[in-house]
Amino acid sequence: MVSLRELTREELILPGNASCAGCTTNLSIKLALKALGQKTIFVVPACCTSVLQGVFPLNSLNIPVLNISFASAAAAASGVVAGLRVQGIDDVTVVGWAGDGGTVDIGIQALSGAAERGTDFIYVCYDNEAYGNTGMQRSGSTPMGAWTTTTPKGKTEQKKDMPLIMAAHKIPYIATLSPSYPTDFIEKFQKAKGIKGTKYLHILIPCPPGWRTDPAVSIELGRLAVQTGAWTLFEIERGTLSISAPSRPFLDKANRKPVQAYLEKQGRFRHLTQQETSQIQTRIDETSEHYSKVNQTRLCP
Amino acid sequence: MSRKELPKSIHEMPFTCLSPAVKGSAGRTGSWRTVRPVFDRGRCTKCLLCWVYCSEAVISRDEKDYPVIDYEYCKGCGICAHECPTKALTMIREAGGE
Amino acid sequence: MTLTIVDSGSHVAGLAAQAARAEVVAAYPITPQTAIVELIAELVSSGKMRSEYICVESEHSAMAASVGASACGARTFTATSSHGLAYMHEMLHWASGARLPIVMAVVNRTIGPPWNILPDLSDSISQRDTGWLQFYCASHQEILDTIIQAYKICESSKVLLPAMVCFEGFILSHTSMPFTIPDQEKLDSFLPRFKPGWKLDVDNPMAHGTLSSSDYFMELRYLIQEAMDNARELIPAVDKEYAETFKLPYHGGLLEETFCDNAEILVISMGTIGSEARVAIEKLRNKGYRAGSVRIRSFRPFPIEEIKKVCERADAIAVIDRAISFGMEGQLSTEIQRALYDVKDRPLVLNFIAGIGGRDVTAKDIEEMATHTAKCARDGKIDQKLTWHGLRT
């Protein structure tokens, strides 16, 4: 059990970079690097992180970073892993750090290939549920009902279930995370670091400019996502699903806050009708019930 | 390299786009904010949540585990004050605002 | 131990990667390159080649993985053709912009639609602006030598750019010729371990490729042009050094000249059309023509001064392009004319498009083009600037 007090005081992300005020991606990098330590290499495709790093010739991440093209995070990371291995370097953690666009849409081919090859790296999808870097256009990870610049009336399609897609790749470790639950967050990163093979971590990222929210409530939003069941924290270890402690109480509808509590704080859901909100609520109820049923079981053969 | 040492001629350039990590890679981001956090030591229980949740890594811990805020780069997002369980941190308007 | 064997052009490329001690190979199969990746897979799995081999899921990922590996300081090799090269276009820019000395064998094949697996140079010529060195080979020995030389040139701190070693599909890849592989120990002295210009290093953490503005970008790109200028000097020097060290033929450095000294008519081409041209030129000489042939070996960097020198006193030049830039003309022809622009009394230049989509270009075809050019020289004017040779009418 991780103690926040015992976390290292060293910051591998330096303040004053180009991230927005209240950016939970910036926070996630901070926490991830506290878990992973200094012997870490990030491979970052086009995404908010390419920009928040800082403007050349300055940068804010005090680890080696290979910025790469939008579609290539997992492929470039595969190359880094091979390049280190052939030189006998075996104590460095390689992390593909990509947004939802570079994971779920344009980056999915490279990710699927890397996972199928069992590439020994951690792939992190930090998900603000749209193409944040280019101004909030919809992605495959945008949830149903959300406004984006390319779904002005609200997205009509479902959010792509990336953790389940990764489960079908039979990789050893998958987890969903939220920086609003920092001990769970850090434990999952530490666990991933200790496992050989492809590890997939998916972080829900409240995004003030993209979600049209007050930056001050960024952490509260992550909590509400879990408390309403809109986001479930879990692990899939060697194919078996296990719901994480913070989400377990909320599998029971009696404990869940109505999804309205989560949606009403976000401008991107302001246009929703009551009918649309109740559709979202139904979807959440079905998903949570399903998770209850399959908790502690193998998801794939 | 610091902001003072930014290359001025091609001879001072790195031959490829490599950047070292520095504070303030986007400038003095403290100038972005319109509100700032104010710390009331008397209310603080040293829970460290502000240190954990600060999205800019401008909050550090002193030897006694009280938070120390780097106002040079604090963007005034308000997360620390919102999450502080004892209201030891509150947000006030920057001087010059109403 | 020096080894002389007979094998296919594709296998030569794989053996060159082995001889050069490539440490990471990330490649995706495509006709007519497949035999290269298959040979390397065999060499790696049998332990004969100490390399990490990544069976990537696309060519775009092949180049992305190559960038990742080279950025760690590993000597990296890959191979592709045609559509595969086109698919990785974005990443070609990334490799040169990141100043990574990746060497890639390009087995030239045309690009569809319609599907066509046969050779022309349109795949690699259309990548000429990407900041990659480009070599065009005409024999199996040259493929071997050029891949090894390319590492030496590209890994030089004065260059640090990636290189394509191009050779025509089927004509070279699927035919067999004898060639000699130098002794490995001597090769290791000629080409020592890769010392990267930069690398991802936890002991010296830097971010590569962060967002930039117009403040510094132009200078970064200028440095690539400067590296190309340095490569232009290094290429003939390394070719000479290699030939002398291993007692193997000198390939001409930037370009190979045949009977050019007193030539009135020149045929300029690249790849196997260039070796076929030597046969044609000999025949023409026997018929009394003062004809010569230039085979351009280094297309990038382009041998501007060398072309000027060899072409200055010719009356007319037939430039044979195995590709075309639609809406303009053959790319080699345009670049030759640019090289000759400042020459007083410069020669006439005729452009022949030939061999597109794998159509055969024989010595007889080249003779026809050359005699036609000679006639224009005698008449003092060009009847048709651009001719698609052998086009069905």
Write the layout of secondary structure elements.
The complex is a heterotrimer of chains A (301), B (98) and C (393).
Chain A (H helix, E strand, L loop, with lengths): L23 H13 L3 E5 L3 H5 L12 E3 L5 H14 L6 E7 L1 H5 L2 H9 L4 E7 L34 H6 L5 E5 L4 H12 L4 E7 L3 H4 L6 H10 L6 E4 L2 E4 L16 H4 L10 H21 L7
Helix pairs in contact in A: 1-7, 3-5
Chain B lengths: L17 E2 L15 E5 L9 H5 L5 E3 L5 E3 L9 H5 L5 E5 L5
Antiparallel strand pairs in B: 2-5, 3-4
Chain C lengths: L2 E6 H11 L4 E4 L6 H12 L6 E4 L3 H13 L4 E5 L1 H6 L1 H9 L5 E6 L13 H4 L7 E4 L3 H16 L7 E6 L7 E6 L2 H7 L16 E2 L5 H33 L8 E4 L6 E6 L1 H15 L4 E6 L1 E3 L3 H8 L4 E6 L9 H10 L7 E6 L9 H17 L6 E3 L5
Parallel strand pairs in C: 2-3, 2-4, 4-5, 5-7, 6-7, 11-12, 11-14, 14-15, 15-16
Antiparallel strand pairs in C: 1-8, 6-13, 10-12
Helix pairs in contact in C: 1-2, 1-7, 3-5, 7-9, 10-13, 11-12
Describe the protein's architecture and organization.
The complex is a heterotrimer of chains A (301), B (98) and C (393). Chain A has 301 residues and is α/β, with parallel strands linked by helices. Chain A has helices at 24-36, 48-52, 73-86, 101-105, 108-116, 162-167, 182-193, 208-211, 218-227, 260-263, 274-294; strands at residues 40-44, 65-67, 93-99, 121-127, 173-177, 198-204, 234-237, 240-243. Chain A has an eight-stranded mixed beta sheet with strand order 2-1-3-4-6-5-7-8, with helices on both faces. In chain A, a hairpin with a 2-residue loop joins strand 7 and strand 8 (240-243). Chain B has helices at residues 49-53, 79-83, and strands spanning 18-19, 35-39, 59-61, 67-69, 89-93. By secondary structure, chain C is α/β, with parallel strands linked by helices. Chain C has two domains: 3-246, 3-Layer(aba) Sandwich (Rossmann fold); 256-388, Rossmann fold (3-Layer(aba) Sandwich), CATH 3.40.50. Helix content of chain C is 41%, strand content 20%. In chain C, the strands form three sheets. In chain C, strands 3-2-4-5-7-6-13 form a seven-stranded mixed beta sheet, with helices on both faces. A six-stranded mixed beta sheet of chain C has the order 10-12-11-14-15-16, sandwiched between helices. Chains in contact: A-B, A-C, B-C. Chains A and C meet through strand 1, strand 2, helix 3 and helix 5 of A and strand 3, helix 3, helix 5 and strand 9 of C.
